[in-house]
Amino acid sequence: MTEGNFVDYVKIYVSSGKGGKGSTHLHREKFIEKGGPDGGDGGRGGHVYLVGNKGLWTLFHLKFARHIKAGNGGDGSGDRSTGADGDDKYIEVPLGTVVKDKETGEILFEITDEGEKQILSRGGKGGLGNWHFRSSTNQTPRYSQPGLPGAEMDVILELKVLADVGLVGFPNAGKSTLLSVLTSAKPKIADYPFTTLKPNLGIVAYRDFQSFVIADIPGIIEGAAEGKGLGHYFLRHIERNSTLLFLVPVDTPDIKGEYDILVNELTKYNPEMLDKERMVVISKCDMLDDELKAELKTELDISFKDVPYMFISSVAQQGLTELKDKLWKMLNE
Ligand SMILES: Nc1nc2c(ncn2[C@@H]2O[C@H](COP(=O)(O)OP(=O)(O)OP(=O)(O)O)[C@@H](O)[C@H]2O)c(=O)[nH]1
Ligand SMILES: [Mg+2]
After folding, report:
1. What is the pTM of this model?
2. Strand order through the sheet with 200-206
3. Per-block average pLDDT, block size 10, for the chain (333 residues)?
4. How far is CA 172 from the centre of its chain?
5. CATH topology assigned to domain 165-332
6. Which residue's CA is the nearest one to ligand 1's atom 4?
7. In the UniProt record, which is one GO cellular component term (predicted)?
């Protein structure tokens, strides 16, 4: 995935197909002088459907799909033949996609299950052919119904649950590096603050074909709530995550102090952020030898009494399996 693949909101315009015309046809055959009406019905216009796909995690694939249009129904014809139905369109969306009418803001429905199919825009009905209108008083009706028009609408698709785990940390803490070693995402990594400007998502493949999603967001600094750094508006991307992973580099002079600043900024953004499961990861621990690590551990055991913490190194690949195991446990508790 590339920089900024985190799309949880798209506007699209959909239109279903119009129904085909019913046919006004009179039967003709050699030696039969007066054939009856035999005009067939028009086919129905194509529907536009939304379909749940658990392999999708964002609405990124729809970012540039401005107009999605289903096919028109075919016209009916003689010999009572019905026109073909218009081609249906299937829009695949991640589970947790909420559909709203753009005009009214009304929630239309939500896709929550794999393979769940709902009609977003219904195709117009095909018209009836003249065959239907024959009667005792009119043996040869010369009229039929036109097809009904399709429906057009602007809709908003919004994703409720984007990622399971959100990474929180100061700039340069190693968030993007961690994402790159846990997932196949390739975010930009560099030795300067604010390398990440837009959120990135990655999928962690876990044992037995399970998976969960991690979101890497820009770094947060003290005063973010007042607009310092990149501000904190992008916290909305992790607002709905169930678990927050706080990253503090091992060479930070006051590890607990930095963690407290992060927690404080999150609280200022939305106090409910603190209701989530939390874990602290001390990153870049390859910079520390075992002796120093043991010393630090004694200190941190006291500072982090109420929240679990662990050491990792993305570069030296230390603690990564343990981290995945712990996250998986937290997510499934
Ligand atoms: N020694 C060491 N360096 C690391 C480790 N992880 C990341 N780094 C380095 O730390 C620097 C910052 O890494 P990033 O992953 O870009 O940090 P970030 O938290 O995403 O930074 P922003 O996007 O600016 O918020 C880079 O130079 C990385 O190479 C690690 O495990 N060990
Ligand atoms: Mg980054």
Report:
1. 0.70
2. 200-206, 210-216, 165-169, 243-249, 277-283, 309-311
3. 66 97 89 82 98 88 91 95 97 92 93 93 96 89 94 92 84 95 88 85 80 87 84 76 92 96 92 91 95 93 94 96 93 82
4. 28
5. Rossmann fold (3.40.50)
6. 284
7. cytoplasm
Structural fold of domain 1-159: Spo0b-associated Gtp-binding Protein; Chain: A, (2.70.210)
> Two tokens at 288?
């520390």
- Residue 283's Cβ-side half-sphere holds a number of Cα atoms within 13 Å equal to 24
What is the domain partition of the chain in residue ranges?
Answer: 1-159, 165-332
Tell me if 161 CB under 6 Å of ligand 1: no
Pocket test for ligand 1, best of 167, 172, 238 (most atoms within 8 A of CB): 172
Query: What CA–CA distance (Å, rounded) separates 67 from 214?
Result: 31
In three-state secondary structure terms, 48 is: strand
Does any ligand 1 atom lie closer than 6 A to the CB of residue 195? yes
Sheet holding 107-111, edge to edge: 67-69, 9-15, 152-159, 97-101, 107-111
DSSP3 helix / strand / coil % (the chain, rounded to 5):
25, 25, 50
Question: In the prediction, which pLDDT does 29 show?
Answer: 77
Instruction: Give the bridge partners for 141, in sequence order.
Output: none
Q: Which protein residues have a CB closer than 5 Å to ligand 2 (ion)?
A: 175-176, 195-196
Pairing of strands 309-311, 277-283: parallel
Backbone angles phi, psi at 279, to 5 degrees: -145, 145
CA distances from 73 to 50, 127, 170 (A): 20, 10, 57
* 146 close to ligand 1 (CB < 6 Angstrom): no
Q: Shortest CA distance to 194 belongs to which of 7, 6, 3?
A: 3
Say how far residue 16 (Cα) sits from the centre of its chain.
Answer: 23
Token pair recorded at residue 174: 């190693």
* Residue 193 Cβ contacting ligand 1 at under 6 Å: yes
The residues, ordered by sequence, that sit 6+ positions from 291 with a Cβ below 8 Å of its Cβ are none
Q: Look at residues 290, 282, 328 and name the one whose alpha carbon lies nearest to residue 308.
A: 282
Q: What is the CA radius of gyration of the chain?
A: 30
